[in-house]
Amino acid sequence: MKYVALVYYNEQEMAALSQQQWDALSQECMACGEDLTDRGYMITGEALLPVASATTLRVRDRQIHITDGPFAETKEQLAGFYLLEARDLNEAITQAEKIPPARYGSIEIRPVRELAASQNIHYPLKGEAK
User: Fold this and answer.
1) What residues does each domain of the chain span?
2) Spatial CA neighbour of 54 closest among 66, 38, 44
């Protein structure tokens, strides 16, 4: 099964790192990705530019609305992702715990829903019976 490991951290805190610290973290992230790929867990992954470079698109009543910046104000920003292949959530967690920015922020692990022409899937809201 595929899992996406979304990397979040506070961009302001990361901007406070020295160039040497930032370069070391980048090297560590690349080594982590290479290791996960070599062991057959990582499909792909990318780092993202800061949220100031984001554009948010919404379509409401067939009208396109474009906003500069991220979707929402948050303490941590989406910084990148690793697309992993794992047997189950426990294996995905075991691999995602190796992602270096987890020390600075968080890693959100979510199963990938593969789209099909016809799916009978209901997504209950929190507290709603399944």
Assistant:
1) 2-111
2) 66
Contact 46, 58 (CB under 8 A): no
HEC secondary structure over 53-120: HCEEEEEECCEEEEEECCCCCCCCEEEEEEEEECCCHHHHHHHHCCCHHHHCCEEEEEECCCCCCCCC
Q: Which residues contact 43 (CB under 8 A, 6 or more apart)?
A: 2, 83, 84, 85
pTM across the whole model: 0.82
Which residue do the tokens 């794992």 mark?
Answer: 86
Question: In whole angstroms, what is the distance from residue 34 CA to residue 51 CA?
Answer: 26
Fold of 2-111: Alpha-Beta Plaits (3.30.70)
Instruction: Average pLDDT across each block of 10 residues of the chain; the chain has 130 residues. List them in order.
Output: 95 94 96 97 95 85 84 79 96 96 94 79 61
CA distance 130 to 126: 10
DSSP summary character for residue 51? G
Best CA proximity match to 109, nearest among 122, 91, 128: 91
